[in-house]
Amino acid sequence: MRRIAFLWIGLAAACVALGAAAAFETRASRIQAIKTVGIVSAIGEEMSLTQAGLTRLGTTAQSLPISAWALDELIVQQATRLLEGRLRVQPLTYRRAAFAAIRDSAVAPVNLLRSDPFKELVRSDVAPQGLDAYIVITRARSKLGNGRNVEGVGLAEYRTLLADYGLIHALYEVRIIDGKSFNVIEKRAAGPLDNTGTVPLAGPSGPVDEALGGSAPSERLRAAVVDLITRSLPVTFGDMHLIGG
């Protein structure tokens, strides 16, 4: 009986592995079949200022407008350059605020029975329609230190009893949405870069010594955010099999 039980367990595990491999192959083949795409970006209209840690449990996050940084335009431009070698990228019109208003993150657990919140928005709010796929880039979320959520572009100050740490982050996720069915072919949050700081985040981030609470974000902070996006976007697209290989 024990041998039979082990055989059943082994067979079940093999079936799961085969199913996962088949699903991966299907996604990869669907991505490889894409020829025309449009790019939506909606992460860069505001910057959060977060204070956290043992001495900052009662503080609330603040935000500053950074629309003048034109981060979404930069993301669309960089994504277009990365994809143009294999795909034909079509300029899009869409309401950026409508995409930015949706709070849903690939970093957090996702209810697989719930329809993706961007599906209908791409169907109803993006022009032109009829492309093979749409790449949607929006804010992602991660935990900081004691469990406080941070998302999108932001500057975080984490205080302990012994030291203060500054952290700049540009957290985002990328969806590939089928242009005919509007189903999500692939969804992935940009991962951490090669910086493993004292207070790591599950996404692009790095140390910074800029003080919080200034009247306006500085050009140095913008350069740090642009660097995070510029270095992480090719890696994320590569992981999603949009470029390379």
UniProtKB/TrEMBL annotation:
Query: Which keywords annotate this record?
Result: Signal
Q: Does the keyword Signal apply?
A: yes
Q: PROSITE patterns attached here?
A: PROKAR_LIPOPROTEIN
Q: What residue range is the signal peptide? A: 1-22
Please report the name of this protein according to its UniProt entry.
Answer: Uncharacterized protein
Please report the organism this UniProt entry assigns to the protein.
Bradyrhizobium frederickii
